[in-house]
Amino acid sequence: MQYISHYDSPLGGITLGSDGESLIGLWFDDQKYFADTLDKQALVKELLVFEETKRWLDIYFGGEIPDFTPKLLMKCSKFRKSVWDIMLQIPHGHTMTYGQIAAKIAKENGLDKMSAQAVGNAVSHNSISLIIPCHRVVGTNGSLTGYAGGIDKKVQLLKLEKANMESFFIPKKGSAL
């Protein structure tokens, strides 16, 4: 059985998903791939993991750095998990490029190179937003692109984390990078 709960953030509603013990999803309510790891019959129920996650979110949206992580269960392929594990290591207020993640995965697997596009696909399908900080992944040229919750939210999250916004730019819709 799977469960859901709701959180009202300063950036809009967030839906939380759980298998009863671990957090399996955290999505902005209007984001791309919303609830992609949830069964259609998920029940609304308050759980300990939801309480912990909401406390984490309160601290985060209060402008502080949470000193704990709720119990997570990444329901994904081995490759996506390797990308998401790297995202978990990106410090608050810092960023990493898709290419840097690809290079790190290639090195860890003894490969000459890895596709940044494959990494981008894994990043975009992150089902535990914010806690697995996909908003901290940027294009090689500093472009703020590829956030399933919307570029406006990505900008606001990076500003909340006091990231150096001078090194980023937002591509215009329809422009090639």
Automatic annotation (TrEMBL):
Q: Which UniProt keywords apply?
A: Cytoplasm, DNA damage, DNA repair, Methyltransferase, Transferase
Annotated GO molecular function terms are: methylated-DNA-[protein]-cysteine S-methyltransferase activity
Q: Where is the Methylguanine DNA methyltransferase ribonuclease-like domain?
A: 3-69
GO BP annotations listed: DNA alkylation repair; methylation
Q: Which reaction does it catalyse?
A: a 4-O-methyl-thymidine in DNA + L-cysteinyl-[protein] = a thymidine in DNA + S-methyl-L-cysteinyl-[protein]; a 6-O-methyl-2'-deoxyguanosine in DNA + L-cysteinyl-[protein] = S-methyl-L-cysteinyl-[protein] + a 2'-deoxyguanosine in DNA
Report the InterPro entries cross-referenced here: MethylDNA_cys_MeTrfase_AS (IPR001497), MethylDNA_cys_MeTrfase_DNA-bd (IPR014048), MethylDNA_cys_MeTrfase_DNAb (IPR036217), MethylG_MeTrfase_N (IPR008332), MGMT (IPR023546), MGMT_N_sf (IPR036631), WH-like_DNA-bd_sf (IPR036388)
Please tell me where this protein is predominantly located.
Answer: cytoplasm
Kindly indicate whether the keyword Methyltransferase belongs to this entry.
yes
Q: Where is the Methylated-DNA-[protein]-cysteine S-methyltransferase DNA binding domain?
A: 78-162
According to its UniProt record, which residues of this chain constitute the active site? Answer: C134
Q: Where in the cell is it found?
A: Cytoplasm
GO terms for CC? Answer: cytoplasm
The Enzyme Commission number assigned here is 2.1.1.63
Family statement drawn from the similarity comment of this UniProt entry? Belongs to the MGMT family.
What does this gene product do?
Involved in the cellular defense against the biological effects of O6-methylguanine (O6-MeG) and O4-methylthymine (O4-MeT) in DNA. Repairs the methylated nucleobase in DNA by stoichiometrically transferring the methyl group to a cysteine residue in the enzyme. This is a suicide reaction: the enzyme is irreversibly inactivated.
Something else known: This enzyme catalyzes only one turnover and therefore is not strictly catalytic. According to one definition, an enzyme is a biocatalyst that acts repeatedly and over many reaction cycles.
Q: Which HAMAP family match?
A: OGT
Specify the protein name. Methylated-DNA--protein-cysteine methyltransferase
From what organism does this protein derive? Answer: Campylobacter iguaniorum
